[in-house]
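Saturday, quiet lab. Running sequence design on the structure tokens for the scaffold JK sent over.
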């Protein structure tokens, strides 16, 4: 059965083109993908991300329980701080990539990918020692407000002092009269917030943000622009760029792996061994040097031999280049390395470049 977010009717009234995404009826675009992408880069865009899952750990020992499940170290954080982390299998591959929010040592909220909600909950339930997780996904709606004008827009609608909420920090307050978790996080490379509110308040909050953002040129944005925005930043998408078969080190996400943290975590031994032995393949960012657009699954060739495949690719609306990511052998991963991408039987030359593709000042 197709799932719908609390904002489904709002999207339809705005003329969104709806598609199935991981079993959810979601807007892929409203006006145009490029216009929505540019709104986020230059002004402000509004995304419904209520399909994401929220899993909560509460009670004495919650922090210790979660810290054994995730690759990053929430114990080093303060209350009101969040971390990007992996839920890893014994081989160091991704069960999922998540954001963990530390409200207190006795309350942790984990935001998981929509396609992995049931899997993650079962995985955590089986491995949690002490505090058991509770799936709160149906209780929450989540709205992302992103772009250079996002902070000013949200500040006009809240009494919370957002200048005190730094990147990957959050506070609890009201936005447009709606109780919300106000998190300075996102998936676009721009400043902004992800707002978690009760599912029943989602329409009120969405409408208030759209109305208050009119002077800023706010646009509702779909999954299409969300994908092109994150690709320009080389942010990984679960199921494309990261999965259970590729390790966190291969994905270039060693910075979210804390091998030295007290108590360890699932997958630690495998990653320590791989780090010592050397990573055999790496996720790289590349640009095509001839015409074409790389897409997920396209073969990567070196001297005519298949050596990898494209995980994500697009024509970057801001960078104005055909860009992509691919897993390639470590000897082809250095900046300036070259290979070909097989686009429908045509070998199109590509070069490994420094990422993110979009250089932020």
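Result came back. Writing it out in full:
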């Amino acid at each position: 059965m197709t799932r719908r977010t609390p904002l489904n009717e709002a999207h339809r009234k705005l003329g969104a083109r709806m598609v199935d995404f991981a079993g959810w009826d979601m807007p892929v675009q409203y006006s145009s993908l490029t216009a929505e992408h540019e709104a986020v880069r230059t002004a402000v865009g509004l995304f419904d991300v209520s399909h994401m899952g929220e899993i909560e750990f509460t009670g004495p020992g919650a922090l210790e329980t979660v810290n054994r499940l995730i690759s990053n170290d929430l114990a080093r954080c303060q209350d009101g701080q969040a971390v990007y982390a992996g839920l890893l299998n014994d081989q160091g591959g991704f069960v999922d990539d998540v954001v963990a929010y530390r409200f207190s040592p006795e309350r942790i909220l984990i935001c998981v990918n929509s396609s992995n909600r049931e899997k993650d909950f079962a995985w955590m339930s089986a491995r949690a020692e002490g505090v058991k997780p509770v799936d709160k996904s149906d209780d929450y709606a989540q709205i992302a407000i992103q772009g250079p004008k996002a902070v000013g827009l949200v500040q006009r609608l809240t009494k919370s002092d957002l200048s005190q909420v730094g990147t990957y920090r959050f506070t609890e307050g009201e936005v447009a009269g709606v109780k919300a978790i106000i998190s300075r996080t996102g998936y676009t490379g721009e400043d902004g917030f992800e707002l978690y509110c009760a599912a029943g308040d989602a329409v009120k909050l969405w409408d208030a943000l759209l109305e208050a953002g009119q002077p800023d040129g706010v646009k509702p944005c779909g999954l299409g622009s969300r994908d092109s925005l994150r690709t320009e930043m080389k942010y990984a998408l679960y199921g494309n760029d990261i999965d259970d078969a590729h390790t966190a080190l291969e994905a270039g996400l060693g910075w979210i792996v804390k091998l030295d943290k007290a108590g360890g975590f699932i997958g630690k031994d495998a990653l320590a061994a791989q780090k010592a032995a050397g990573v055999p393949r790496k996720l790289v960012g590349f640009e095509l040097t001839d015409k074409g657009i790389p897409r997920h699954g396209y073969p990567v060739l070196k001297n005519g031999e298949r050596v990898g495949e494209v995980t994500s690719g697009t024509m970057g609306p801001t960078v104005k280049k055909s860009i992509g990511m691919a897993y390639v052998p470590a000897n082809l991963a250095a900046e300036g390395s070259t290979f070909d991408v097989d686009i429908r039987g045509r070998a199109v030359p590509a070069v490994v470049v420094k990422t993110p593709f979009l250089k932020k000042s």
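Notes for JK: Residues 18 and 27 are 4 Å apart (CA to CA). The longest strand covers residues 94-104. Ask whether to fix the surface positions before the next round.
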